[in-house]
Amino acid sequence: MNNKIKVRKNNENEIVHLTNLKWTFLLFLCLIIVFFLIEDKNFYLYVSLGIVSFLCLINLIHNNYARKERTKPIFSVLIIGLDIISLSVVIFLNREYLLRFTPYIYSLLIIEYSLLKGKRNCFLLATLFSLLYASIAYVPCHQQWLNVFGLDWKTSIFSSMNYYEITFHMGFIYIVAFLMWYLNKQKDLIFQEKDNLIDNLYQTNKILAKTKDEIKAYNQTLKIRLETQQITRDAIRHAYHTIETIVENIGSGLVIINKEGKIVVFNKQAEKITGFTALEALNKKCSDIIKNDLCLKNCPFGSTKEDVFLSSGYGIILCNKFNEKIPVIINHSSLKDEEGNTIGAVEVFTDISKLNEVKEMGSEFLSLVSHELKAPLTVIKGYASVLLKEKLGRINQPQKERLAKIEQYVDKLSEIVSNLLEFSKITAENIKLDKISLTKIIKEVVDTFKQELKNRDLDLKLKENGHSYYILGDAPIIERVFVNLINNAIKYTSPKGKISIEVEEEKDIVNVYITDNGIGILPEDMPKIFDKFYRSSVVSLDKEGTGLGLSIVKKVLDIHGANIKVSSEINKGTQFCVSFNKIMV
Amino acid sequence: MKKILIVEDDLDIIDVLRIILEDKFEVLEAHNGIKAINIIYEQIPDLIVLDITLPEMNGYQVCRLLKEDEIYQHIPIIILTSKSQKRDRFWGIEAGADKYITKPFDADDIIASIEELLIKKGKLEE
User: Fold this and answer.
1) What distance separates the 2 farthest-apart alpha carbons in chain A?
2) Measured between alpha carbons, how far is A541 from A301 in angstroms, rounded to an integer?
3) Is B11 on the interface with A (CB under 8 A)?
4) Is B68 on the interface with A (CB under 8 A)?
5) DSSP secondary structure string for all residues of A203-220
6) What is the mean pLDDT of residues A308-323?
7) A379 to chain B, closest Cα gap in Å
8) Does B104 touch chain A (CB under 8 A)?
9) Is residue B126 part of a domain?
10) For residue A436, what are the β-bridge partners?
């Protein structure tokens, strides 16, 4: 629409210029006619002057309206038509004066028309004007035509014009028409191009506007994203700060190592325990800073950094910067990325010196308590024994029985105290791991029970396959395990009963089966047999035993990383299976 | 009658031991390590029943002192103590004791142990 308005404006501007040109030309024509009138006061010249003046006035008025943009192209076309007819008549009436101007007049009319209407009908007009010109030029040759109209024509001018000149003039009109056609075509092309450019510009504007909107929307999104990023960054910063605070302030040493085994994080407590500053420790090999016997024996991270290593914590002796030995509990864990590749490891270690001191104090306390309990027990048992032996005078049977009970319960109490003390002393820190012969220990324990087995009329068979099996353990404590298990088997098997001990290997495990055909264990007692002081309901209270034997067995095996399983049937017997990791000699 | 020296700071335990042993042996007593040494030097008992936790000088020291002395190293020593841990037993044997009995003890065990050691000592003297 805007384009059409612009085109219309252009047309109106052109009309202004045209009418300007026309009335100027027509005024000039008037002057020429006046000039001819001076020479020849011809009636037709007067008429022509009047017509041309009228045309001049019309065009002037049209020009005025065109300036004020109050005209329409249709008026221009009508005026052109009027011009063509009027000027043709003028030329016809004054051929002798104006015929030579005719081609130029018609050419101007063609120019005028084509400027307004474009290249259309240029040649048609050229043909029309050529015919008119030819008519005007040739008509006087036929006097009878002139007589029809009652006209008298002077032929002097025409005799000076020949056919070639007339034809040339006609050609001239065509040439002008062609030129206007060509110019208009070019103008059309230019306008078309201009229109295309305008369309393109319009489209581009639209696209730009759209793009602008998109950019605006994108900017908005970007702004939101930046704000979110800022929030995330703040959150990350905050989280990092929190983690940093935690890492720096936890009560244990925390060390993170990268894939190359070099330290990348070393907190304050680690500095305190190891004696190295973070500056000294960072980027150093782990084993140079956290020096301990484990590094020598078996580095947790191994030579292949891809190993999955998880430790639930164990005690080691760490050698600090000043070569002081610090007992610590250490935990390891490997660090993995999202794809599951090992990227490092973390070690957390806690100084247990104080704990050890407390434990030592506790241990000493326990020893003291044990000693203090045993002293009166000794006296009680001693006197009971002395009285029973009638060393202080005779006693009757009921007195003997009661004194025997006193002796019996003192023994039991003493055993409880001993077992409690033993139980408390069995800890990971107190055991000494060595390569020991399991086969030898079992044989020695069985030997110690020979007399008792004989006294109780029990048969014990030790089945061995001739192999010697070695494990990593504390010999006296492992011995205690088998003492307690065999003791139980003896205690809970009736005379004439059978006990067997069998040792066999299964890949890297050595299993020891202790089987009896005694009273068995109730199913409801099975989950509790390793609890401290637990005694089955089938066992009478006066039966020897403190309820600590199996607790001690379980504790020892747990510390050694061994397993124990039990299966039993009431009145049929019980089987304990103890499994150790065997070591190659 | 053979002389048995009981070195114990608990008077009641001394009383119990005296009652158990006085039928068969002459019982001497000392309540601390220093007194025990003095009696040993004066009377040279045939056997010593020695507690560990003693005032002035503990049982290990007494035992070590006697065993390092050529004159008295032949006297059998039974350590009688409430310390029942393996390491206590180890230190006792390491100090030179001939036997280690834990409290509370069995009267018959004490008598049997004493007689066994006296027989062994007699054979050695022969």
Assistant:
1) 200
2) 53
3) no
4) no
5) HHHHHHHHHHHHHHHHHH
6) 67
7) 5
8) yes
9) no
10) A471
B106 vs A418: CB contact, 8 Å cut-off? Answer: no
Q: How many structural domains comprise chain B?
A: 1
CA-wise closest residue to A136 among A102, A174, A183: A102
Lowest mean pLDDT among A159-163, A355-359, A401-405, B82-86: A159-163
Size of interface A-B (CB pairs under 8 A): 68
Distance from C-alpha of B34 to C-alpha of B9, rounded to nearest angstrom: 12
CB of B107 within 8 Å of a chain A CB? The answer is yes
Nearest to A125 by CA among A107, A99, A137: A107
Q: What is the CATH number of the domain that holds B69?
A: 3.40.50.2300
Which residue range(s) make up the domain with B27? Answer: 3-120
Contact state of B82 with A375 under an 8 Å Cβ cutoff: yes
pLDDT of residue A329: 81
In a domain, B109, yes or no: yes
Whether residue B125 lies inside any domain: the answer is no
Residue of B nearest to A381 (CA): B104
Asked if residue A463 has pLDDT above 80, the reply is yes
Chain B segment 35-64 residues within 8 A of A by beta carbon are 53
How high is the pLDDT of residue A12? 56
Residue A567 has pLDDT above 90, yes or no: yes
| pTM of model > 0.90 | no
- Contact A391/B20, CB-based, under 8 Å? yes
pLDDT of residue A155: 47
The pLDDT tens digits for A106-149 are 888 888 777 777 767 778 888 888 888 877 776 654 455 555 55
A337–chain B nearest CA distance, Å: 50
Residues of chain B falling short of pLDDT 50: none
ipTM of this predicted structure: 0.85
Residue B82 near chain A (CB below 8 Å): yes
Cβ distance B53 to A371 less than 8 Å, yes or no, reads: yes
**pLDDT (mean) for A542-563:** 80
3-state secondary structure of A66: helix
Mention every residue, 6+ apart, whose C-beta is less than 8 A from residue A135.
none
Q: Is residue B34 part of a domain?
A: yes
Residues in chain A: 585
| Residue A262: DSSP 8-state | B
Mean pLDDT on A308-332 = 72
Residue contact A385–B17, C-beta within 8 A: no
Three-state SS string over A351-383 comes to ECHHHHHHHHHHHHHHHHHHHHHHHHHHHHHHH
